[in-house]
């Protein structure tokens, strides 16, 4: 699903080059649920953004679902993001002037999906995230947990095989955070959607079946559940 080969991300600053990511290699298989963890500023979000084609590496190769992201032009990358990846963010990033249904339908409308198909899909998604009846409400009328459910429904709209979530529980209390993680876990188990989340949430570490620990731009640990710490790195077994 995701192949990251010798990927670095360098920012040119007045003080010189800054390596946000340093020569990383990761392989994530279809159907995995991966949590990327590590200290603040270690490069977690940068890595996730590269996986989703929101940004490009300075050097190295990013291959997602067979697509070489470095080889796409801007327009192709936009289409890739819209059709292949569902994004979920800490602050939900819903459009405040649009209803819940309109937010969920955004990518479908952009992709010129017929109206009756959109209605049908939105209805199903509302059911999937347990928000039936809230179609006509605006994001500000929903709780944080409900807004994150809308964001997940929106991420699922195009039936992506990959969901990338950056601190999806970061703004939620423990109960709502656990509910969101359970929803992601259900999507992973039942729909076989590959899920990668960046998180500081210890609860997330429990639902993920693989934890990648990043420090100072480098992957320092890559551990699958049930694999003892002294066994080879999961990335080198992939
Ligand atoms: N556009 C940019 N220009 C310069 N430096 C940047 C830029 N974007 C990120 N960085 C730097 O790259 C490093 C990694 O940032 P990143 O957001 O990936 O960290 P993170 O691990 O997700 O942190 P947090 O847990 O605090 O969100 C940080 O030191 C950050 O300051």
Structure characteristics:
238 residues, alpha/beta, Rossmann fold, four-stranded antiparallel sheet, 8 helices, 35% helix, transport, AAA+_ATPase, ATP-binding
In summary, what is this structure?
This protein has helices at 44-51, 74-84, 100-110, 115-128, 144-156, 174-190, 202-207, 234-237, and strands spanning 2-13, 16-28, 33-37, 59-64, 67-68, 85-89, 162-166, 194-198, 210-215, 218-224.
Based on secondary structure, the structural category is alpha/beta
Indicate the multimeric state: single chain
Any idea what the shape is?
globular
Number of helices: 8
Examine the coordinates and then state which fold CATH places here, giving the name of the CATH topology: Rossmann fold
Strand composition percent: 25-35%
Average pLDDT works out at 92
State the name of the first-level CATH class: Alpha Beta
N-to-C CA distance: 11 Å
Query: CATH homologous superfamily, by name?
Result: P-loop containing nucleotide triphosphate hydrolases
Instruction: Name the helix and strand elements from N-terminus to C-terminus, one letter apiece.
Output: EEEHEEHEHHHEHEHEEH
Main sheet makeup: 6 strands, mixed
How many independent structural domains? 1
Q: Reading side by side through the largest sheet, how are the strands ordered?
A: 6-7-8-3-9-10
Please report the total strand number as a whole number. Answer: 10
Identify every distinct bound molecule in the structure, by name, code or SMILES.
adenosine-5'-triphosphate
As a whole number of angstroms, the C-alpha radius of gyration is 18 Å
Unreliable spans are none
CATH architecture: 3-Layer(aba) Sandwich
